[in-house]
Write a structure and sequence with these properties.
By secondary structure, this protein is mainly beta. It has helices spanning 5-23, 31-37, 41-44, 55-62, 231-236, 325-331; strands at residues 76-87, 104-118, 122-131, 136-152, 155-164, 207-215, 219-227, 245-247, 251-262, 265-280, 290-304, 310-324, 341-355, 359-370, 387-396, 410-422, 442-450. This is Cytochrome C.
Length: 451
C-alpha cells in the first residue's frame, strides 16, 4: 500500500496535533475567584490549587461563577508555569525549535484570565495564553455562563447555559479530559500520538452552546452542540483551523452525572458522549468525512478528612468508533475500502491524597488500545495505537489554605515522573528504529504561579 504525498502530510499533521494535544494539559487556578468569594483557594480546589474542584467549587461553577462576598473585585488574574524536562533517552530530534533533544528548561505558558461573576445570573471564565515553547499567543479556555435557580415539581433546579470552546471544558468534575489529571504538563515531553477526539482535539477549534439542569445538587443533565468557527477567525485567534479540520454541521454533545453526598464525601457516576463528522485538514476533495463517535462513563470520589486532609479518586473509560473514510481516501488514492473503520478504548484513573490540604501525592494510570490500521498508524511498527503507563506526581501548595495578600497569589511546585510500558503500539522497537517505550519515561520539575 502506497501513501500519496498529501496523505502523508495529513497523517504527519494529525500525529503532531495529537501529540501536542495530549501534552496540552489544563492548567488553571484563578485568584480572581478567590478574591470575589472571599474564600481561600483550598475552598474550591483540592490541594489549594486548580483545577481539581471540591464540592464547593463544583457548585460555584454550576451557579455560573456568581457567588460573591464583596460588592466588587477585579475580574483579572494571571498565571505563569515553567518546568525542567528530562527523558530517559534523548529524543530522536529536538521536540521544538530552539530546544535540545533532552534536558530542557522552558516557560511552558503564561496566561491572562478574565474571570468573575456579574450580577446574579452571568459569569465568565476566559483565558488567553502565550505558549513559551511554540512562542505564540492564542485564545485558550472559554466558558461564559448564564444561570438562574427555580423550583420544578418541588425540586431545586439550577438552569444554565454555557458558551464554550471545547467539549467538556464546562464540566464540573475532573474526570473528563478537559480538566482531568495531569493538571500540568509540558509539550516538550514525548506523548502517545493517539487519543480519542474528546481528549482535546476540538479544544479552541470549536465553539459550542450547551444547556444544563442541576437538580437538587445531585442530578446533572446537559445537552448541546459544537460547530467550527471560520478558518480565518481561528487563525486570528492563534488556533490552527486545519487541526483536525472543520466540523460538518454540528456535533451533538451530551452529559449526565449523579452526585451522592455521603457525610462530607461526594460520590459521582456519569456518562458523556460527542459525535463529530469532520473534513480532515479542511480537505473536501474526496467527498467523504471522518466521523468520530465518543461514548464514555466516569466516576469520582472525594472525601475531606481530619486536619484538612483530602482523598480523591477520578476514573474514566471512553470508547471511540471511527469511520475515517476521508483520511483513508486521501491515503489510498480515493479508495477508502475497509481502512476507515477503527476503534479506540481509553481508560484513565488517578488517586490523590493531600496532607493538611497542601502537600499532595497523585498516582495515575492510563491505557489506550485500538484496532490495527496500517494507514492511520503507518508510523507505528505494529500499526496499533496502544500506549500504557503510569504517572506519579508530588507537589506542594504552601499558600492554598492560608490568608493571602488580598487572596491574589498562589504557588504550586511539583515533581512528575511518567513511565511507559507501551508507546504507540509496542513496548520495544515501537517505531521500527529500536526505540523502547521506556526510553520516553519522563522526569519533570515544575513551578506554577497564579496571581
Amino acid at each position: 500500500m502506497q501513501l500519496n504525498l498529501d496523505c502523508a502530510r495529513l497523517l504527519a499533521l494529525l500525529t503532531v496535533l495529537a501529540a501536542s494535544l495530549a501534552q496540552a494539559a489544563p492548567a488553571n487556578a484563578v485568584p480572581a475567584f478567590a478574591a470575589q468569594t472571599g474564600q481561600p483557594c483550598q475552598m474550591c480546589h483540592v490541594g489549594g490549587f486548580g483545577p481539581q474542584l471540591t464540592v464547593f467549587g463544583r457548585n460555584f461553577k454550576l451557579h455560573g461563577y456568581t457567588q460573591r462576598a464583596t460588592p466588587f473585585s477585579i475580574p483579572l488574574s494571571a498565571m505563569v508555569e515553567a518546568s525542567y524536562v528530562r527523558t530517559t533517552k534523548a529524543q530522536a530530534a529536538p521536540p521544538a525549535p530552539d530546544f535540545a533533544r533532552n534536558d530542557n528548561v522552558a516557560l511552558d505558558q503564561a496566561s491572562l484570565f478574565f474571570a468573575g461573576g456579574f450580577g446574579e445570573h452571568l459569569g465568565a471564565f476566559v483565558q488567553a495564553t502565550y505558549d513559551g515553547v511554540a512562542r505564540a499567543f492564542s485564545w485558550d479556555n472559554l466558558d461564559v455562563r448564564a444561570t438562574t435557580t427555580t423550583q420544578l415539581a418541588g425540586h431545586d433546579v439550577v438552569v444554565g447555559a454555557s458558551l464554550n470552546n471545547a467539549p467538556g471544558v464546562q464540566d464540573a468534575w475532573n474526570t473528563l479530559p478537559a480538566w482531568g489529571f495531569p493538571y500540568s504538563g509540558s509539550s516538550l515531553a514525548p506523548a502517545p500520538a493517539t487519543t480519542p477526539l474528546i481528549d482535546g482535539a476540538l479544544a479552541q477549534t470549536s465553539l459550542g452552546l450547551t444547556g444544563y439542569a442541576w437538580i437538587d445538587s445531585s442530578l446533572y443533565l446537559e445537552g448541546g452542540a459544537y460547530g467550527s468557527p471560520g478558518a480565518t477567525s481561528l487563525a486570528r485567534l492563534g488556533a490552527d483551523p486545519t487541526s483536525p479540520g472543520d466540523i460538518s454541521g454540528l456535533a451533538p454533545y451530551g452529559r449526565i452525572a449523579f452526585q451522592k453526598m455521603m457525610g462530607n464525601a461526594a460520590l459521582e457516576v456519569g456518562a458523556f458522549g460527542v459525535d463529530a463528522s469532520i473534513h480532515p485538514g479542511l480537505d473536501r476533495s474526496t467527498g467523504f468525512l471522518d466521523r468520530y463517535t465518543d461514548l464514555g462513563v466516569d466516576a469520582s470520589y472525594e472525601a475531606p478528612l481530619a486536619h484538612g486532609d483530602i482523598f480523591a479518586v477520578n476514573a474514566r473509560y471512553t470508547h471511540e468508533r471511527q469511520a475515517l473514510q476521508a483520511t483513508c481516501a486521501l491515503a489510498i488514492e480515493g479508495r477508502p475500502g475497509g481502512c476507515g473503520h477503527s476503534h479506540l478504548d481509553e481508560m484513565t484513573a488517578d488517586v490523590s491524597y493531600y496532607w493538611h490540604g497542601w502537600l499532595g501525592a497523585t498516582l495515575a494510570g492510563f491505557d489506550t488500545t485500538g484496532s490495527a490500521n496500517p494507514v492511520i498508524y503507518a508510523g507505528n511498527r505494529t500499526f496499533r495505537p496502544d500506549s500504557t503507563g503510569v504517572m506519579l506526581q508530588l507537589d506542594a501548595t504552601p499558600f492554598g489554605g492560608r490568608p493571602q495578600p488580598a487572596r491574589r497569589a498562589n504557588l504550586r511546585v511539583g515533581l512528575q515522573y511518567t513511565a511507559y510500558t507501551r508507546f504507540d503500539g509496542a513496548g520495544v522497537n515501537f517505531d521500527g528504529a529500536g526505540t523502547r517505550a521506556s526510553d520516553n519515561n519522563t522526569f519533570r520539575v515544575f513551578t506554577w504561579l497564579a496571581f
